[in-house]
Design a protein that fits this description.
Mean pLDDT: 82
Distance between the termini: 11 Å
Helix content: 25-40%
Number of helices: 9
Order of helices and strands: HEHEEEHHHHHHH
Number of strands: 4
Largest sheet: 4 strands, mixed
Strand order of the largest sheet: 1-2-4-3
Radius of gyration: 19 Å
Length: 275
């Protein structure tokens, strides 16, 4: 299940144009709500309760390719835009760095058939309505892609696993709670596995090692596209906000993370997480 913390009954609905056994057309005046958010240990409160300074974001909605098949997709798009505008200042603050200037405009492009549920590329977030129909409460997907818009690192990075890990970290540990806790596989998982696995490790580091470590990784990636895995290891071991004798290597920290996860979250059968 991609989003079990959401409003579950939305799973029985489908936008017009989505094929299900018992298709239900959404009423034209129906508002698709934001999923219920049960605060986890690191999850942030609503931005309105945090007193975050406003960061302007203009969102253009392009449903021209799907509106005939899914005439009510614009309702979802408008609510997704509200969620993104609300959380944009949070992401900018969490991933801020020296001289950082966030982009001021993003376009949502909805497509019927796309190779991924959603993807960010140069100011546009492409969303597949085929995937969206299966979970109308999946605004977390938009937080992931919006994070990429805030990251917008220069050039091609050597550590894509960390880029995607940070995006899933903001989604699953700030915006919502990861119900599968990264779906770690002790003895097999690596911190470079990307997405939920890396995100789960980042959450552990923030809570148990250095609360600013994600910001430090982000600042390094934004400054230099040539960042390597060794650079990330150096930041862990040398730049952590700890006394020198308390700093640890990446390998030691990951082993500690696996031990902690096994103790607190391991179950006899761990389902594979979807990205």
């Amino acid at each position: 299940m991609k989003h079990i913390t959401g409003v579950l009954f939305w799973g029985v609905f489908a936008f017009a144009g989505c094929v299900t056994e018992n298709e239900v057309r959404l009423p034209a005046n129906l508002l698709v709500p934001e999923p219920v958010r049960i605060l986890g240990p690191t999850q942030l409160r609503a931005p309105s309760e945090m007193g975050m300074p406003a960061v302007p974001l203009d969102i253009i909605i392009d449903v021209s390719r799907v509106e005939n098949e899914a005439p009510y997709i614009k309702l979802w798009a408008k609510h997704a835009a509200t969620v993104c505008k609300t959380w944009f200042p949070v992401l900018c603050a969490e991933l801020g760095s020296e001289n950082f200037k966030p982009r001021g405009k993003i376009t949502f492009v909805f497509l019927r058939h796309y190779f991924a549920p959603a993807q960010y590329y140069k100011g546009r977030i492409f969303i597949s309505t085929d995937d969206l129909c299966g979970d109308l409460s999946n605004y977390g997907m938009m937080i992931h892609e919006l994070t990429h818009a805030v990251q917008e690192y220069p050039g091609v990075t050597n550590v894509d696993w960390l880029v995607e890990g940070i995006a899933d970290y903001t989604r699953f540990y700030l915006y919502e709670t990861d119900p599968l806790q990264g779906c770690i596989r002790p003895g097999q998982s690596k911190y470079t596995d990307s997405y939920r696995t890396t995100a789960c490790f980042l959450d552990y580091l923030v809570r148990n090692y250095d609360k600013a470590i994600v910001k430090k990784f982000n600042a390094a990636l934004r400054k230099n596209s040539g960042v390597t895995e060794n650079d990330i290891k150096r930041i862990i071991a040398e730049d952590a906000d700890l006394e020198i004798q308390k700093r640890q290597t990446m390998e030691i920290l990951f082993n500690s993370f696996i031990a902690d996860w096994t103790k607190n979250f391991s179950t006899p059968t761990v389902k594979k997480a979807s990205q």
